[in-house]
Amino acid sequence: MSSTEEAPARFAGIETWPTRDLAAALLETQLAAVAAAAGTLPMLARAIDACALRLERGGRLIYLGAGTSGRLAVLDAAELPPTFDWPSDRAVALMAGGPGALLKAVEGAEDSLTEAPAALAALGLSEADVVIGVAASGRTPFVRAGLRAAREVGALTLAIINAPEAPLAREAEIALVADTGAEIIAGSTRMKAGTAQKVLLNCLSTGVMIRLGYVHRGRMVEMRPTNAKLKARAVAMVADLTDAPVEAAEAALAEGGTIKVAVVMLSLGLSRDAAEARLAATGGKLAAALQG
């Protein structure tokens, strides 16, 4: 039995506790989850660099998960395109039971040994890709089978798990093990385990995007200004990064089309075409494009 499925004696009878004590205990477990995620620091740093190397070759981030873990993986994949303008076809989440399992549990789907390998094959998995398996117990057959298939083709395999003794800790090339231990409600891994997984997914994908040049001076310079709020944020970002008046930033953004092009145009006094060429020559990395 995984440690996440144990029933801690400390919380026996918690349903009889005063509500304030109950709430305090629930919050305490969430803080413990973050502390457990922090314990993965060396492996997290290694994972960020390893992922960035594969993605620079044109690879994809492909997530595998079931239940809560799968839903958290889907969320991470879904947020990369609007946050960083990362191509949606390069952030793919495969959930046990298919897309419908995102909203309604598909019982038994996590036990499949064929679904994940078949889905990866359909994607044309290659050694440039990164496959991230997310599983609290680290034993989920769907995830294990998918990671094994990924290793066979030479893709980078990562595991985000919550049990040190889990098979996935040994089977993945890099394992991020947030040892969250027993849950306040035995087996309810949407609690501590899920929180730690969300923390690690956030940190991993954001760290990778930073390494790839999608962030400049702490700003989301690849952000898509798709609504009024984001358009205002984009204009403010261009003005702040170039010390230009808001009106000039707005005009440059309208002409350049993207935050990075507008910043290069205003900073170096270039036309849109020249700014785009400069960015292309540096692989889209704004800091390099602004040098010299």
Automatic annotation (TrEMBL):
Keywords: Carbohydrate metabolism, Lyase. Transmembrane segments: none annotated. Gene3D superfamilies: 1.10.8.1080, Glucose-6-phosphate isomerase like protein, domain 1 (3.40.50.10490). SUPFAM superfamilies: SIS domain (SSF53697). GO terms for biological process: amino sugar catabolic process; peptidoglycan turnover. GO terms for molecular function: carbohydrate derivative binding; carbon-oxygen lyase activity; ether hydrolase activity. Residues 51-214 form the SIS domain. This is N-acetylmuramic acid 6-phosphate etherase.
